[in-house]
Amino acid sequence: MALRLIADFDLGKDVLPWLRAQLAASAAAGAGGGGPGVLENNYECLRVLNVERNRNIIYTCKDDKGNVFFGLYDYQTKQNEHLYTFEKDLQVVSCSVNREKTLLATSLVQAAKEGKSNELQPGSKCLTLLVEIHPINNVKVLKAVDSYIWVQFLYPHVESHPQPENHLLLLSEEKYIEQFRIQVVQEDGNRVVIKNSGHLPRERVAEDFVWAQWDMSEQRLYYIDLKKSRSVLKCIQFYADEHFKLMFEAPLDISLSDSGFKLVNFGYSDLQDQEELSKHLTLCVFTNHTGSLCVCYCPNFDSCEQITYSVFYFHKGHSKTFTTTPGSVDSCVTKGITFLNLDYYVAVYLPGHFFHLLNIQHPDLICHSLFLTENSEVIDMLPHSPLQSLSGSLVLDSCSGKLYRALLNQSYLLEFLWNTRLDCERMALLHCVLSCGRDPRRLEAKIIQWISENISACHSFDLIREFIIASSYWSIYPETSNMDKLLPYSSLLTWDTEIPGITLVTEEIPLPLMKVHRFKGYWEKLNSNLEYVKYSKPHLYYNNSVVRREWHNLISEEKTGKRRSTVYVRNILDNAIKVISNLEAKNLEPRLTPLFQEEDNHQQLLIGLMVSELRDHLLRHLQGVEKKKIEQMVLDYVSKLLDLICQILEASWRKHNLHPWALNFNRQASAAEFAVFHIMTRILEATNTLFLPLPPGFHTLHMILGVRCLPLHNLLHYIDHGVLLLTEAAVTRLMKDLDNTEKNEKLKFSIIMRLPPLTGQKICRLWDHPVSSNIISRNHVKRLLQNYNKQPWSSVMDKSSFSVEFLPLNYFIHILTDIESSSPALYAFEGHDNVDAKFVEEAALKHTAMLLGL
């Protein structure tokens, strides 16, 4: 299934055997009421009551006399403990135990049995008790009222030593929240008792609320109160130093006036059955370590025709309201909607009807979230019992008594990626799989295999481009906060295609008003996100526009022979060397593809410029991060871009069983080489749009394959349109390896004529042919005559020194000879000492003879 539920606790496996053993031990000892005394064959009443911050689980059941038994499963030691037995037939509303396991708080109501007398205090509906359980001793009545009460001990962050004072929250159905301060002392050794139990200090935390949620991991209380019929979400943070603060207020555009009273994660009572709960609104708050704040809301729905739910992305400044039809008219909805927190995602699903995996880090484009309807087999594989999302990724199935860790099932999502046919699902699944972050090398290899099989299947986006950007992003994102605002997450800026089965409305929402001015941890990240929404428009995503402009300037200067400061260029090239070294250090396996085997000056300039610009971008916007760490992140990011391209090429070569020595100009190109050439062309197309660098040697390899795979007119068309680049290494190999057949001569001449002048002069020296001699001669003459000052004929002409009776040529060669002899050092042809006036004369005569057909 899309969700992977790993059971951390199971009442049937972790508690029942222990209870049976306790019962057997009690029976063998002839014990009466000293043991648990649980019925041997009737465990339907066994259920989970609460999960504390340290993941200790409190559960309850009844013995054959109806007495209420409280037990605790210690998450660390995997052991069960008997906490307390209440010797009356009552029903438990709520229960909590302090960290030291010395105090138990519980609220109970009369069991629903006909003709049964009231065992509570006269006139009270709910009894709230505080019990000393180390050892079992006094019982104090905190409240005896006609409304339900829920209890929750606070767990401070400091866990190294016992706390002298415990804090207990009481939530009343009468819509107020109190905090009790309970001091304990030790007597007679380890016996813990309540100090001044008759006068426990208390204070009001909140009142007039209609909804509340407890975050056990972060010790936060979220609640909603109604101000002039307007819903306002508030959050209180409880601290270890005995105080609490109101952190923010946020208006919510939802109607709660007639929704009754609801609590989330304050224990798991069976006062209402699940069918009754499904008729009430569903509302929950989700956060994660990146500073996200999401409110998920689904109003009551009685109709089978349409379901609407909203997600308020407060950390992004907007909300999205989704509307979907659960299925056919006959498929009525009998269960409530479920929201689950999956770190970077929120899962929304209705068992048997739909599954929606919402991307909360990048919610702008709907294609980055996965929506599946009941027609998908994924829906049938989701849990059908209602799940309750606790803090983090913990999920409780209160029906079965199981506690899970909910994770995205990477293997299943990969399989689904292979089988789906919709572009929107491909996009969402690609990002979802990459976000899982487990075994990235293996994961990338599988995605690359999928890309190679579906290279032309996507019409809405470029698979290679999206994979390179997304995978590079996830490789560096966890290293520091705010990366989601500074690095591109996707190659797409917009998505206009409808998602089948769902409609969407996006609205801007008021940002939360922070009520404090100094922040730490999560609150600092949330505040940073809110500040970004307020002041950072347009987005701060990095792009290579500056790199593109600077790179073109450097290449233009190179062609004209002008180059700015050598130190500047050297620094740029040093950046490239660092990236390549960083890449090679992380990749110890030998490469099949002949990359990184030449000094590709143009690509090295591009790599170095990207390092420089990206580093400056991050230094501007990442406040408080060490410069050294930023520099390493930049090297890792650019290295990852290049590594992914190398991986795609390596996979293609391996798939088609190619080897470097197979690239022989004298052999016929194989189908495998055509396939690799096609992949390389698609890589080039993907990177050119974003102006991303390529591994040095890529253009040389691409050119060699192009020569082998394409007819001459197609090859020249690719060259003229910049698809194939004439690198010096590729042209050098071509000139040396190809013989001088008529076809090859035409190819060589066509290529030489397209080379830049300086490169052309070097390449011509490698081709022993009259055409190249002619070109060399022309270049030599042009250079000699650039500064020529004409002199009288009589002073320079000596007829006896020329054997050719062709006066124009005699005169011209004499001028060249005179210029060469006057300044030999100045006019020597660089790298080719054999070129002189005599060489020019011979080349001219050969060329004339060719033209005359002699």
UniProtKB/TrEMBL annotation:
<protein>
    <recommendedName>
        <fullName>Gamma-secretase-activating protein C-terminal domain-containing protein</fullName>
    </recommendedName>
</protein>
<dbReference type="Pfam" id="PF14959">
    <property type="entry name" value="GSAP-16"/>
</dbReference>
<dbReference type="InterPro" id="IPR026172">
    <property type="entry name" value="GSAP_fam"/>
</dbReference>
<feature type="domain" description="Gamma-secretase-activating protein C-terminal">
    <location>
        <begin position="642"/>
        <end position="749"/>
    </location>
</feature>
<dbReference type="InterPro" id="IPR028010">
    <property type="entry name" value="GSAP_C_dom"/>
</dbReference>
